Amino acid sequence: MSGITFVQGDITTQHVDAIVNAANSSLLGGGGVDGAIHRAGGPEILAACRELRASHYGKGLPTGRAVATTAGRLPARWVIHTVGPVHSRTEDRSELLASCYREALRVADELGARTVAFPAISTGVYRWPMEDAARIAVETVRQTPTSVEEVRFVLFDQRAYLAFLAQEE
């Protein structure tokens, strides 16, 4: 991989091969990044997710796994949906969070994607502490063998952007 970049902005406007969606296990849309991607991408994404639910993922997508669909009206070719873990103070779920990034990169490789945009997975309603999430995300992407040439972390606000930028060193 030639590079990791960090930008503050809206992931739904990124001109990349694949956008990663911090999905919920139902794959049928939700709040935060998931809702924004479904709204901006249009009904094609939801239709593709419904097909996945009707075939391979009748009980939903398991935490830490990833699957791709069309990107609909987004300026990307694909959306890679991954389900992050809910943060827990009593159980270490770091490996599940790392798996989201590894699995998304594996799917990106299968698709032939060269540029991938990631959000800060599990940091919204799943309450993962931002600094820890940034560390896990960047370390995992650096350590995962991939044909992806650019991983772009697209952070919604300045707090997230600065937490991820601090991982650059």
Task: List the SSEs and their pairings.
Blueprint: E1 3-8, E2 18-23, H1 32-41, H2 43-54, E3 66-70, E4 78-83, H3 94-111, E5 115-118, H4 130-143, E6 150-155, H5 158-165
Parallel strand pairs: 1-6, 2-4, 2-5, 5-6
Antiparallel strand pairs: 3-4
Helix pairs in contact: 3-4, 4-5
Name the CATH homologous superfamily: Leucine Aminopeptidase, subunit E, domain 1
Helix and strand pattern: EEHHEEHEHEH
The CATH topology corresponds to: Leucine Aminopeptidase, subunit E, domain 1
Q: Compute the number of structural domains.
A: 1
Q: Which sequence of strands runs across the widest sheet?
A: 1-6-5-2-4-3
**Major sheet attributes:** 6 strands, mixed
Overall mean pLDDT = 96
CATH domain class name: Alpha Beta
Number of helices: 5
Q: What is the distance, rounded to the nearest whole angstrom, between the alpha carbons of the first and last residues? A: 17 Å
Structural class: alpha/beta
Task: Describe the global form.
Answer: globular
Verbal overview:
The structure is a single chain. A 6-stranded mixed beta sheet has the order 1-6-5-2-4-3, with helices on both faces. The model has no long low-confidence stretch (mean pLDDT 96). The longest helix has 18 residues, at 94-111. It is globular. The chain has helices at 32-41, 43-54, 94-111, 130-143, 158-165, and strands at 3-8, 18-23, 66-70, 78-83, 115-118, 150-155. The chain has a single domain, classed as Leucine Aminopeptidase, subunit E, domain 1 (3-Layer(aba) Sandwich), CATH 3.40.220. It has 169 residues and is α/β, with parallel strands linked by helices. Helices cover 37% and strands 20% of the residues.
